[in-house]
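Lab channel / #folding
Pinned by the channel admin:
"Please post every new chain as: sequence first, then the structure tokens as a reply. Keep commentary short and put observations after the output so the thread stays searchable."

First post following the new format, from NK:
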Amino acid sequence: MSHRSIAHVFSGNPYISFRKMARMTGLDVLHALWESDHEDANSSGPDTEADTDEERCHFELRTDPAEDQLHEDADQVTQPSLPPAKRRRKSGKRTPVNKQQAAQPARSWKTEKSADVAPPVMRFRPARQPGVQLSSTEAHTPLDLFKLFFSTDAVRTLCKNTNEHAARAIAKGRKYKWTDIGIEEFYRYIGLIFYMAMVKLDQIRDYWRQSSIFSVPFPATVMTRDRYRTICWNVHMSDADKDQENDRKRGTPQHDKLFRVRPLMDTIQHACKAFYHPRRNLAVDERMVATKAKTGMTQYMKEKPTKWGFKLFVLCDSSNGYTVDFAVYTGKNSFQTGQGLSYNSVMSLVNRAFLGSGYYVYMDNFYTSPKLFRDLYGQNFGACGTYRENRKECPRTACNALTKKSGRGALRWIRDGPLVFVKWMDTREVAVCSTIHAAFTGDTIQRRVKQDGVWISKNFPCPSPIIQYNAHMGGVDLSDQLIQYYTTQHKTMRWYRKLFLHFLDIAATNAYILHKELSSLGQQEAMPHKAFMEELTAQLCGVSQKAPNVTRRECYDHVPVPTASQTLDASKVASIGRKTCKLCRMDFGKKQNTPWKCKECDVPLCLQPDRNCFAKWHLQL
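Reply from TO:
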């Protein structure tokens, strides 16, 4: 059969594809047919547009599935078998084409010579005036600022739950004395914790060691060792009855792993937001609270200085390190949105109802993803952070991107709508994504390089997102640094006590930042961090921080007065108002009662012919 006859046979059936014609008639015949028709079309003049690529593609798509199956069955009977390789190629499935990728032109990396236009600047609309939410005209002592986070109501709840827990422990057979703890005593207990954070000793009992050149006299004047230890054993943040109800839900979605710290944690989180509103630049990062307790929540992070512990996601103000909000990671099932841990942790911290809009959020490559940045941009939040190339929708390395041979300062960038992806070569390649900045605006950065055997300083071009990232990403690191100076963390047998101590760290550090902000508003000089913590410790323990300096003055600056303000009954003159001599307790560990005290120091001291503690106290060096 000639190729013209073949054309006549199939000309009336538009559902026969070129592929089917090839199987039923032979490839060589149809190839000759196509060439002949192609020549006729070319010779027919400009008005003839036969057999164009578009028509051939359309012609091939018009196939009938039923006829395909029919002809495939016929092929199995009438057609000779093909070689194995061809048969596999023929029967193999065709790879589907991603139509969206095929429709988009291939993105190419551009250099610093190409101009980039940043997205429109977001209007900054904070929900409140940024800064401290307290009056700068009023005096705020360190204790006042600390009580913003550990309020009297919060401590009252702690005392109630601690007393209930101690009663249960004694009912179970614990052999120690217990008297219910009150609010003032609990504050003194917290003061001793801060004192131990500033004066580091190996063991708790070393703070009460007597008759040694290494003795520390102050803790014994605040609380006995046994009392401090029993409070440590029993301090509890949640209701004991509700703890048991929560434990029975273990293994179900209703179980709260953080139930034992939830009451205090909610109070601290609320206080962090209530008394300070962050400025525009924020940072999100992880923080580790050291522990190796087997709770199911302990994480290992090899790149952190503290490798084992509880992992917290923290939102901080980049300008001063203030902890705005935090969340304790409890496991993979913490978030049920299905968007991934890095996405959900950021979205849970960036709360538009509290913050407002127009904020810039900086993060590292654990969190950065195009979807997160687009969703934040849709809520009028800018974002900037390093990224990983294997993240979905991130551009892959292409032939025109940076290589290992690229010189220092070389940069490449790609813009995808509001997102700009930038690669920059420093000592190694750095990749940053941003919805805030343009790729390059002419900024430079100084580096020391070795040239002809001599170290010199040299300027290199640097992308704008990287400069701003370095300037604002350290908010959480600054907060961690302030906490670590005088951290209250020490060994404990209770995992929730580790978080309790960290809540103390957050409260004390945020209180110090508030003190600096208030001092700046009032144009006063702020106390150094150490002096602030010393004053806070003294006020929590109920003593004056200036007492050690006052005791070194001469005796004529101080006079003895009775400890009792007034005497109503002459028969009680010798006994009323007696208090324990402070010097006798420090030197001998004995309780010697005395009716005298120093008017200036307000310290009870013995004043007897054979034991003049009053003179010894004021003359000792």
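NK: DSSP finds 24 helices and 19 strands in the chain.
TO: also worth noting, Confidence is low (pLDDT under 50) at residues 1-11, 25-106, 547-556.
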